[in-house]
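thread: overnight batch results

M.L. [08:02]
morning all. the overnight job finished for the chain we discussed friday. pasting input first so we're all looking at the same thing
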Amino acid sequence: MVMVDANQIRQVFTNIIINAEQAMLEGGNLTIRAKSRGNTVSIVFSDNGCGIPPAAIKKIFDPLFTTKARGIGLGLSVCKSILERRGGDILVESKEGRGAAFTVVLPLRKTGKCTTYTVSLPK
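M.L. [08:03]
and the structure it wrote out:
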């Protein structure tokens, strides 16, 4: 079980999904996988969009950094902050022109209340 605030994890996941959607201008696939390893769970969001330039990867979680014409550069830095406050992290891998993968890593807890949430995405 993972202990997270439902609204905050929804914000993290929604931000990643919206970014993936924007990276796949001509359509594409977003795959979401979850796996547990030891005392963590990883949720991997992989898309086959335009990818992220290598120079941008180094700064992608910095506040006010953006590659978008209309972005303000807070989305991924807020995601990282939310996850780090919960003992987690967010990682990125990308090949320009071939897509990106964002991995959300959260610590597993052995006790507590378990609640399932469903997030509906627009079509």
